[in-house]
Amino acid sequence: MKPFTQRVVAIIAGIPPGQVMTYGQIAALAGSPRGARQVVRILHSMSKKYKLPWHRVINGKGKIALPEEESFTVQKMFLEAEGVAVSEAGEVDLAVYQYNVERTLEEHVFVDPQDGE
């Protein structure tokens, strides 16, 4: 796994319940400020494998970005179950619910379960 991917996985895994991060915010923290689309790809391909809290990642406008109605509804329900207020349009108040990581990336430890560690 590439270092950027490892950092993205570690950051997403570290988002606490009841808070959200944006794709762009995660990309910047992982070292690629313009890598929001890469975060989308990583999230899509690795969420199940690494049991990532995919529902805690939204777009930079504070909205659920999933186009399918079923996926949109599932993400909205998961966020609401954690206490995040989500409008009918899928909007989240980033001023209230955005997770601002104060730790350095070195504190985010990622262990690949396939490495057996």
From TrEMBL:
Keywords: DNA damage. It comes from Brevibacillus brevis. InterPro entries: ATL_DNA_repair (IPR052520), MethylDNA_cys_MeTrfase_DNA-bd (IPR014048), MethylDNA_cys_MeTrfase_DNAb (IPR036217), WH-like_DNA-bd_sf (IPR036388). Residues 3-84 form the Methylated-DNA-[protein]-cysteine S-methyltransferase DNA binding domain. This is MGMT family protein.
